[in-house]
Description:
The chain is 46% helix and 14% strand. By secondary structure, it is α/β, with parallel strands linked by helices. It has a seven-stranded mixed beta sheet with strand order 1-7-6-2-5-3-4, sandwiched between helices. Helix 5 (115-121) links the parallel strand 3 and strand 4 (125-127). It is globular.
Amino acid sequence: MEALRLKLLSIWVWAAASGIIVGNTFLTGLVWLLTSPFDPHRALAGRMFRVASHAVAGAHPSWTHKITGTLPPDVSHGYVIISNHESHADSVLIAHLGFSARWLAKEELLKIPFLGWMMRMAGDIPVRRGDKDSGKEAMEVMAGHLRDGGSVVLFPEGTRSTTGTLGAFKDGAFKLAIETQAPILPMVLTGCGNALPKGGWVLGKAHAFARLHVLPPVFTHGLTLDDVESLRDRVRAQMEEAHTRLVDEVRAHG
């Protein structure tokens, strides 16, 4: 009975989210057309795209969340924003923060009708998994955007976790931050995997509670590429400590 309930709830959530995405595509397209001549960072189109996250989250009648921590006032200008990765629902939760940034995303996502069109209008950066040339090109695009005063978002694990724990971090985000001398803004989340597990369309739980916490920025002034590994490990340790606290809170929430 519970399995049937989850399937019916999943059908409703996906149908509602799809309708929201289709409708928002036209609004995002209008903003993109009107602002692209004077908004090279595509900040306004990106904001229009991601404001739909509130409605998409609201489509799940029993998904609740709590966000803590403080965003830097200049978060949309020159930060490498990183987070652990549990689920496609992660981006919905992070988008609630309302900052402007270009996101690194799997190339396949940008090929999805409506969703992918909005990602392209927002200037999100595609990467082909397993292709070193594609990864290098994506890093160069992000570096250029950072030097132009924009921010970027990426997941240093490179893929979604299936265990609820933090996976190994790749060097890319930290090398990027050092090369551009940009501060890193870490954030950690948990509970999104309960809302939408990896590998299927059926929701994980009828009632899901997610937590997102923004950590203080980590500055890279004066660091060199010799410091990539130590920076990576230091930031990951901070995120793992915060993640453990969030997991305990979500478990206590039930």
